[in-house]
Amino acid sequence: MSSMKYSEVKSFNFSPLIAAAILFFLFSPSNAQDSSKLVDSLYKNLQQTVESKVRLQLLAGLVREIHYSDSAQPYYLEAISLARELNNSRLLAENLNRLGVYYRNKNLQDESLLYYEEALAVSKQADDYVQIGHSLNNIGQIYYLQGLFDEALNYYTDAEYYFQTSGDLYGLAYNLTGKSLVLGALGQYLNALEAINTAISIRSTNGNSRQLIVSKFNKAQLLIDMGDLDAAKKDVLALYEYGLEYDYFRALQALEQLVVIEQKNRNFTNLKKYVDEALILHNQRPNSESIIAILTAAIEVATLEKNDNWLSELEELLAEEKKEYNTQKVRDYLAKLTIQRQKREIEQLNRENELKLKAEKFRNYIFILLFVMKIILLSLVILYRRYLNHQRKLNQDLKVQKIKIEAQAKELVQINQVKDKILSILSHDLRGPLQSLQGMLDLINLKYLTQEEFQTYIPQISVDLGNNVLLLENLLLWSKNQMQGMQINKSKFDLSEMICKNFQLIQASSNYKQQDLKNKVPEGTEIYADKNMIEIVLRNLLNNALKFTNNGEQILVNSRDHSDNYWICVEDKGVGMNQIVKNKLFKNDFYTTLGTNNEGGTGLGLIISKDLIEHNKGTLWVESEEGIGSKFIFTVPKH
User: Fold this and answer.
1) pLDDT in tens, 92-142
2) Superfamily for 473-637?
3) Short-list 222, 117, 215, 143, CA closest to 157
């Protein structure tokens, strides 16, 4: 159960002196380390206190410390009675749950279930998530003990939600510890291990060694069921060592599991040692269920080994223990009858308290009326604030919509600019040379231009038509990419061979100015990309280099190996460019300048080259200095 918070103690209206005493005894760090001293202090103050609110707080603190003791029951009953009288739903639900645990430990499951269900109703009415979680958790535990595993899992799952929502890690650790056993019983071992590991993580953090050992013991039981005996044994031994120091009852439970493990491992020497230790502990702190299980396992081993003397001794001890166990069951039955009688007495007291409460209701009517009016006013304020927030949201949405429309308008302007540029290219750069050729052909047909005169124009016409072919390829590729995207057909090919082929085409073209072409890419350099696209990129970059270099200047293509890709560099010793010009490249404004022989251009070649390289999972960039030359570098993958 969750412990009482400091803020909750402060909320009660009692004298500062008594409040200080309670805070000292309940929350002093030194006393927290000495439970016996704390119990004595709480008991002494309880004997001297008659004021109901203070007494309830002292009772709640006392039963938290002695809830494993048989002497706790009367204090639970008084705390429950006072909590009803003071209408303190939190402490009422807490102590109902604790009293249920008391009866559960005595194996009076039906009685404990009644208290858990009442605690659940009280905590739900108060919307107390922590106590709702504990109540659901406790009910789930009873169903688990009764073998109703599906019903138990439903309650544990609901309890987990309330612990997580309220942020109660202590309760969540209890929940996941119990839930893991239910999941194990249902055969959901992976989910069970996940739950118990989370519980162990939480309890390792909060430093509660007893609870941590219990969680590890539950994990060990799961591991035994799964057949992982070595891993289970480690946690069971930890519980056994803890039990020897603090709790012989837990120690006997651990010995029960150790006997099971050693029986399955057929390590009968260790088993006999654990049986002897169990008998010694049982004499000091009886645990009939565990010792009966231990003796039963030992009898199976004695029978297997044909150890008649040990078998006779074990059977005699088992018979005596079963007799004592049956006697204890009779005592439990009689205790149940006593509990039922006490319950009837409590119900009678509750009825009397109800009559007192009815007499006080009249005085509360005015308070309720004022409270309702306050709620109405608060609701009106909330509605008005929601209206204002709604208006603000509408205004914000309008602003966002306006921004989107402005962005779309800007995009449309850019698209129109691109369209206009393409039309300009088509009408001037592409149509001009064709019209010139058409005009010359007309002049020849009309006999205004001789064959010799036409021959002088052929080199220029060849240059223009060659540029038109490359321009047309770039335009078609760029347009296709803008409208429907490019289809990539990747394959392996020899990059050095492709460069040599393009050098031959350049040397045969009219753009060639007798530059010194160098291919430094090693033969057999294979890359994985779309061959046609890479060839268009090379052609664009080489034509760009031809355009901006003079006769005899060097144009160099080399490569560099970078793990999974190659860096390909087209380097020229031409005019170069400054930073302003470099910043304008690769953009949709189609920036271009005249070449060394006043060659024109569109700027489209670099744009389409960048797109093609990026479609092949690479990058393209430029390094250049004005008057020194330029390097256009792109990357392509090897594989």
Assistant:
1) 998 898 888 888 887 788 888 999 999 999 999 999 999 999 999 999 999
2) Histidine kinase-like ATPase, C-terminal domain (3.30.565.10)
3) 143
Q: Return the structure tokens found at 39.
A: 């119990």
DSSP state of 425: I
| For helices 149-166 and 169-185, angle between their N-to-C axes, nearest 10 degrees | 160
What is the sign of the dihedral through the CA atoms of 442, 448, 452 and 458? negative
The token duo for 279 is: 């008998």
Single pTM value for the model: 0.46
Angle between helices 268-284 and 248-265 (to 10 degrees): 160
Q: 634 — alpha (psi -120 to 50), left (phi > 0) or beta? A: beta
Helix (H, G, I), strand (E, B) or coil at 637: strand
d(CA 154, CA 144): 11
Q: Which amino acid is at 332?
A: D
Tell me: the pLDDT tens digits for 152-173?
A: 999 999 999 999 999 999 899 9
Sign of CA dihedral 464, 465, 470, 472: positive
Beta bridge pairs of residue 623: 631
Q: Name the CATH topology of 96-207.
A: 1.25.40
Cα(150)–Cα(382) distance, rounded to whole angstroms? 43
Nearest to 140 by CA among 99, 104, 193: 104
Q: What's the gap between Cα 494 and its chain centre?
A: 48
At residue 605 the predicted structure's pLDDT band, cuts being 50, 70 and 90, is confident
Residue recorded with tokens 């009408």: 427
Question: What local confidence, expressed as pLDDT, does residue 21 receive?
Answer: 33
| Cα 482 to Cα 411: distance, rounded to the nearest angstrom | 14
Residue identified by tokens 């406790």 is: 138
- In whole angstroms, give the CA distance from residue 236 to residue 243: 10
DSSP 448: S
Joined tokens for residue 324:
């004592």
User: Rounded mean pLDDT of 471-496?
Assistant: 69
DSSP 194-212: HHHHHHHHHHHHHT-HHHH
What residues contact 112, with CB distance under 8 A and at least 6 apart? 100, 101, 102, 103, 104, 138, 142
- Count of residues making up the chain: 639
Q: Could you give the CA distance from residue 100 to residue 114 in angstroms, rounded to a whole number? A: 8
The enclosing H or E element of 492 equals strand 490-494
CA separation for the pair 46, 41 (Å, rounded): 9
Domain regions of the chain by residue span? 1-87, 96-207, 473-637
Q: Position of tokens 């220029």?
A: 460
Strand segments, DSSP code E, in 106-231 are none
